[in-house]
UniProtKB/TrEMBL annotation:
Pfam family, one: AI-2E_transport
Any one GO cellular component localisation term in the record: membrane
Domain of life where this protein originates: Bacteria
Record's subcellular location: Membrane
TM segment ranges: 21-39, 51-76, 88-111, 123-151
Protein name, as recorded: PurR-regulated permease PerM
Topological type in the membrane: Multi-pass membrane protein
Keyword flag Ion transport: no
UniProt KW Transmembrane helix keyword: yes
Organism field: Tunturiibacter lichenicola
Amino acid sequence: MEIRNNNTTAHLKTAGGALLNWWRAATLDGLIVGVLWLIGLELIRVPFAPLWAVLGGILQIVPTFGGMIALIGPVLAVAFSGHDEWRLGLVLGLYGLIVILEGLVIGPYVLHRTTKVPWWAAFLGPIVLGIVIPFWGVLLAPPLLAVVFAFRKQPGAPPL
């Protein structure tokens, strides 16, 4: 009974450590996205740019919809400040650039550096799970990948 209890404790520590590392990766990802929002919005001269950048970084934690929700504030700020459509187009272009950078480069890189999830798995995991389990697959893919690859790193685990 004692051996089984130690084994369970070791598995819980591995899973807990993997989830903690995933949370660190998600926080760092949000921080990087927030800085990108701040730089871009300040260059475009959007009113209340620091507020929108902080919200953009915080909402980055919400998969798929967080970035879209973060876009509402800067778009409304530009629309109500009497600026032309050119600035509105720049804000939308900034959003597109941030989404592409985060999805293809920043997110997979940060997840790999923090949790040792391979880049290809960090990139393809949310896509595959999003097809298998719409919405929930995208939400659960990064922490699930962190736990799976934490167990794969243990001694005696088969190589991938």
